[in-house]
Amino acid sequence: MRGRDGPAGFLRAIGEARLITPLRSEGGHRRYSRYQLRIAARARELVDQGSPIEAACRIVILEDQLEEAQRINAEYRRAAESSGPPTA
């Protein structure tokens, strides 16, 4: 996916693939959050390793969902441990 468009072209491509949706400045320029740039960097790694852009975007989404599920699961475990065993 490297080409004459460089990083801006890649960001547009993953936007078209609906991985990230940038905000727009008053002048119409794309604005990306740090989180979006981190997601884009991971997609770039996968594309550089030979994954098609659509596959890279899907992988990044699944990785993100897994990370969130693991975080929620850890919160539930901590809550369960702090409440102690049920009393009869």
From TrEMBL:
InterPro entries (UniProt xref): DNA-bd_dom_put_sf (IPR009061), MerR-type_HTH_dom (IPR000551)
Coiled coil: none
Highest taxon listed in the record's lineage: Bacteria
Residue ranges annotated for the HTH merR-type domain, each copy included: 1-62
SUPFAM superfamilies xrefs: Putative DNA-binding domain
Protein's name in the database: MerR family transcriptional regulator
Source organism per UniProt: Streptomyces aureus
